[in-house]
Amino acid sequence: xxxxxxxxxxxxxxxxxxAPVLQLSIQSINPIAAAASYLLVxxxxxxxxxxxxRLSNTEFGWRIGKMSDYLLALAHPTLAMIVLVALAxxxxxxxxxxxxxxxxxxxxxxxxxxxxxxxxxxxxEGFFRGALWGVAERxxxxxxxxxxxxxxxxxxxxxxxxxxxxxxxxxxxxxPIYFSNATLISLAFGLLRMGSGSLVVAxxxxxxxxxxxxxxxxxxxxxxxxxxxxxxxxxxxxGFYGLAVNLLALLLLLIWARSRRNPH
Length: 264
Prior knowledge:
This protein has one domain (3-261). It starts with a helix and ends with a helix. It has 264 residues and is mainly α. The protein is globular, with a radius of gyration of 18 Å. α4 packs parallel to α10 (199-216). The chain is built from twelve helices and no strands.
């Protein structure tokens, strides 16, 4: 096992341990700083890997990508949410439909999507599908292995959130669905990174996903603007329908990514 491979494995898992420990250690002192520290760990390790290995722009994923890549990155979360909202409407679960302020809703989605895009570019995506991805490439791992390993690390980092984040408390029975959805969503973002070669493209998808999911369906145990309370059924990250939609989206993205790698 080469030194680069050891770094890829150890650092990938280390952030999943350090982040929650750091947040818990300062949670009672300053909750806002504690939440920020969970993300800051990714930025520190991401920058550290970038400097230590002198990752090239290509390895890190610093490239613009094609317009078609961005259209797909926008279509992925948009179509997923449209399907889930349609299912909720069909079953009469959108209890606040007539009271929705459309302009305020779209403004909230736009603001959260833009803010998330900037944030994940230097934290989650910047580390998992930027620095860690680049170091794995430096270790000569093949693309499927990189995709799977960065997803394992991504889910491991998210594993503590339902337990230590006061605003994301979900029932224990919903945790298997939550982790399954987190895995599928991470694989989808990874396929966008793999197919486009761009960290930016994956960050666009991540930003819009959060903007749509948390405004429409809520965060943790809180309902979103649509008033849907059956999180375990319709939630894009917490529901059975979400699991089915995410699986279908993953299969379609897999076909696209394979076609990009083998155009002929």
